[in-house]
Design brief:
Layout lengths: L1 H21 L9 E2 L2 E2 L4 H7 L4 H6 L15 H7 L4 H16 L5
Antiparallel strand pairs: 1-2
Length: 105
């Protein structure tokens, strides 16, 4: 009986840890567009997707040059700047898709 309870406790803890990583600050699922997740730090985003830096700056997030922002998640930075994370993620996606299209002659 004790072994079953231990396994249930372990399963619940694993589920809670997974859920904590996959839920954003507003309780909604973490958003992802073009390989960028709303729970990624700005430092990770700038390292893995440097093409997003000018997009963030266009959106009014000039904090990309602030050393303290390197440890802040995209969602946290959007809150600080009064930008809804869904709108920011949509803007990033639209901008990356627009920039990826070849220019028409």
């Amino acid at each position: 009986m004790e072994q079953i309870m231990d396994m249930e406790l372990k399963d619940n803890l694993e589920k809670e840890n997974l859920d904590a990583e996959e839920v954003s600050m507003d309780g909604e699922p973490v958003r992802e567009v073009c390989g960028i997740r709303s729970n990624m730090t700005l430092g990770d985003i700038m390292t893995k997707k440097p093409e997003v830096i000018p997009i963030l700056m266009e959106a009014g997030m000039h904090c990309v040059s602030c050393p303290a922002a390197m440890m802040e998640t995209l969602e946290e930075a959007s809150i600080v700047h009064g930008i809804l994370i869904d709108e920011l993620m949509d803007y990033i996606k639209e901008s990356l898709e627009r920039d990826a299209k070849p220019e028409e002659a």
